[in-house]
Amino acid sequence: MLKLNSIEVIYLNVILVLKGVSLEVPEGAIVTLLGGNGAGKTTTLKAISGLLYTEEGEVTDGSIEWNGQRIDRMNPEDVVKLGIVQVLEGRPMFEHLSVEEELKVGAYIRDDAAGVRRDLDMVYGYFPKLKDLRHATTGYLSGGERQMVVMGRALMARPKLMLLDEPSLGLSPILVKEIFEIVKRINTEEKTSILVVEQNAKAALELADYGYVMENGRVVMDGPAEKLRDNEDIKEFYLGLSKVGQRRSYREVKHYKRRKRWLA
Predict the structure, then answer these.
(1) Is the pTM of this model over 0.85?
(2) What residues form DSSP beta bridges with 213?
(3) What gap in Å lies between CA 130 and CA 125, rounded to an integer?
(4) What is the pLDDT of residues 106-133, one digit of tens each?
(5) Is the dihedral of CA 50, 98, 103, 186 positive or negative?
(6) Which residues contact 70 (CB under 8 A, 6 or more apart)?
(7) Sheet arrangement for strand 161-165
(8) Of 158, 150, 167, nearest to 95 (Cα)?
(9) Domain residue extents for the chain
(10) Are 149 and 87 in contact (CB under 8 A)?
């Protein structure tokens, strides 16, 4: 469905952020994009959704294709109409609206009132807590509740591909497990493809079918999620596990790896 072909992204005509990124999201798949802060993960999602241009960024080389159609020059609203919806990091929303009003914002491109009502019930089926909170003001919600709202809002657009940016950020392990279980259900039951950006590598690789690892604006590793989970570099870099199973900090592992490269 989605294919990125060696794309480069520059901000403000000066700052090169992505340096030849290529990846694919097959129809019906869950793909994860892993990496530390500043690796270029969020920029990759914004390049796909068209939001890059609202931040003075630009795809300057390569191409992004959706079912064979180039979309890297499209406006965000046109990308949404194709069925690609991004759930932004930080869970931004119109905080003066009620939960139900906020969910209906996601259906702004639709003109099928009966379908919108039906999909509102679908969202409440995935997130029963939101039905109880439907008259509550979104600005007073907890982090977990806000994550449910922004995902529900995206579902109201009937996406074919959902771009999830750090859905686990700031949530408790119990909530992370709940959110990722719902993501899996959405993928299975709604046939929605998912591209999820995550720093929680363990949770992401348990969820995904395939994964890519980014570092400094480049994809440095990719493969089936099961193989990435067993990869020693992934274990040390992102899961913090040495070969003998001892827990280590990411900073220690990263420093050790870099030192070995310099010595080589």
Answers:
(1) yes
(2) 34, 221
(3) 9
(4) 999 888 999 999 999 999 999 999 999 9
(5) positive
(6) 63, 64
(7) 84-87, 161-165, 193-198, 30-34, 210-215, 218-224
(8) 150
(9) 2-230, 240-264
(10) no
Q: Which class is 2-230 in CATH?
A: alpha beta
* 153, 87, 55, 9: CA torsion to nearest 10: -140
Closest CA to 199 of 20, 17, 41, 21: 41
Tell me the pLDDT tens digit for each residue of 48-73.
999 998 889 999 999 999 999 999 98
Nearest partner of 42 among 186, 174, 195, 205, judged by Cα: 195
Collapsed DSSP state (helix, strand, coil) of residue 140: helix
CA 264 – CA 262 distance, rounded (Å): 5
Host H or E run for residue 32? strand 30-34
pLDDT in tens, 193-223: 999 998 888 889 999 999 999 999 999 999 9
Contact 9, 59 (CB under 8 A): yes
